[in-house]
């Protein structure tokens, strides 16, 4: 029987989400443990009352709210900045990952190069394969950081359509600085789109972090992606956004699926932005716990990278064995076979349960 689907689909791995097992703590998917605030819930319920109508496919109100928040940040970071983000420089999508998929499809005809660090977000190769692109995976440096010099060299290939950067990097948690990013952008041809995935931006406490929004006017080939799934705690509603030049956003909007961001998601995100300072203050607790867990793991004897995200990374060749061992202890983490284990930073109680469990691993 002739297959109904493309032959190459058989070689594309399916995305594997973190498992959920009754009675076990789940620290595998980088989720926020706190539920939504009443203000967000009320907004969602009010929006659902109008679900007989299609949502605003342009997410007009949400884009305006995002622009306002970003401009507040720009002023806070640099009072003398001339940078300003307009709503027309923002595209909202069904999670930032869907916008990345659209970007690859829009910039890469079949056979074009997608340059990415590896290991990085596991959905990147899948999205590249789906677009029938050629994957150029540049190994991370030994410390888990992107090898930006080699990635910039790879971007010189005239067949390159897009470069994917993840900062802080998922799953290693490592970061690069503002200076690193500027030097990278100066090396990359202006005809190559650079997509900077900042899903974990709000957990980065290094003073050298990239002020990416300030760079958009100087580098029209740069786009920045952020999400409401992490620090804002709206993972189940799937809403993210991209910021770039007006031309980029106009072209990207042509391939974004109409009405992809639902009424409830848009309403929740707008409401969350009214609570922005309160919600982002929660990241301080996560950062404190990240530091405590990192030190505790190192004291036990584990190697742990310096993470600036809401998770920590343990490079391990026995990742599968360690993951299986922790699962037996009712602790669910995310193992990447042969590479390492990613552990979400959770509440102090769940973090302690994890530390107690991993301390008993016989092959520390």
Put the structure in a nutshell.
This protein has 12 helices and 12 strands.
Molecular shape: globular
Side by side, the strands of the main sheet go 2-8-7-6-5-3-4
Please outline the major beta sheet. 7 strands, mixed
Characterize the quaternary organization of these chains: single chain
Average of the residue pLDDT scores: 96
CATH architecture name of the largest domain: 3-Layer(aba) Sandwich
Please tell me about this protein's structure.
Helix 1 (38-48) runs antiparallel to helix 9 (263-274) and helix 3 (96-107) runs parallel beside helix 4. The protein contains 12 helices and 12 strands. The radius of gyration is 20 Å and the shape is globular. It is α/β, with parallel strands linked by helices and 364 residues long. Strand 6 (193-197), helix 7 (212-215) and strand 7 (222-227) form a beta-alpha-beta unit. The model has no long low-confidence stretch (mean pLDDT 96). It has 2 domains: 9-36 and 276-359, Aspartate Aminotransferase, domain 1; 38-274, Aspartate Aminotransferase, domain 2 (3-Layer(aba) Sandwich). The protein has a 7-stranded mixed beta sheet, with helices on both faces. It has helices at residues 38-48, 60-77, 96-107, 123-130, 148-155, 178-187, 212-215, 246-253, 263-274, 276-300, 319-328, 348-358; strands at residues 25-26, 90-93, 113-118, 134-139, 160-166, 193-197, 222-227, 240-243, 311-315, 331-332, 334-336, 340-344. Belongs to the class-II pyridoxal-phosphate-dependent aminotransferase family. Histidinol-phosphate aminotransferase subfamily. The modification N6-(pyridoxal phosphate)lysine is found at residue 230.
């Amino acid at each position: 029987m002739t297959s109904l689907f493309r032959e190459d689909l058989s070689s594309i791995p399916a995305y594997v989400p973190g498992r959920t097992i009754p009675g076990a703590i789940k620290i595998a998917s980088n989720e926020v443990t706190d539920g939504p605030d009443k203000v967000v819930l009320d907004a969602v319920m009010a929006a659902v009352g109008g679900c007989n109508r299609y949502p605003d496919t342009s997410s007009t109100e949400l884009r305006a709210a995002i622009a306002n928040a970003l401009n507040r940040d720009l002023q806070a970071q640099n009072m003398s900045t001339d940078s300003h983000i307009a709503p027309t420089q923002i595209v909202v999508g069904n999670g930032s990952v869907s916008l990345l998929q659209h970007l690859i499809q829009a910039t890469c005809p079949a056979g074009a190069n997608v340059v990415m660090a590896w290991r990085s977000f596991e959905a990147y190769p899948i999205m590249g394969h789906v677009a029938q692109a050629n994957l150029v995976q540049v190994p991370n440096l030994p410390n888990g950081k992107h090898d930006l010099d080699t990635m910039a060299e790879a971007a010189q290939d005239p067949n390159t359509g897009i470069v994917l950067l993840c900062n802080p990097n998922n799953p290693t948690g490592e970061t690069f600085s503002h200076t690193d990013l500027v030097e990278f952008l100066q090396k990359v041809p202006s005809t190559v789109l650079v997509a900077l995935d900042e899903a974990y931006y709000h957990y980065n406490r290094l003073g050298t972090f990239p002020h990416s929004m300030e760079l958009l006017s100087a580098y029209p080939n740069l786009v920045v992606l952020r999400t409401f799934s992490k620090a804002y705690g709206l993972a189940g509603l799937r809403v993210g956004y991209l910021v770039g030049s007006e031309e980029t956003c106009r072209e990207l909007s042509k391939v974004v699926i109409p009405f992809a961001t639902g009424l409830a998601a848009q309403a929740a995100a707008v409401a969350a932005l009214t609570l922005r300072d309160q919600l982002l203050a929660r990241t301080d607790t996560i950062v404190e716990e990240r530091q405590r867990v990192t030190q505790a793991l190192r004291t036990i004897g584990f190697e742990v990278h310096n993470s600036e995200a809401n998770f920590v990374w343990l490079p391990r060749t026995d990742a599968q064995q360690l993951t299986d061992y922790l699962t037996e202890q009712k602790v669910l983490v995310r193992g990447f076979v042969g590479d390492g284990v990613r552990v979400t930073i959770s509440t102090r109680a769940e973090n302690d349960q994890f530390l107690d469990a991993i301390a008993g691993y016989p092959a520390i």
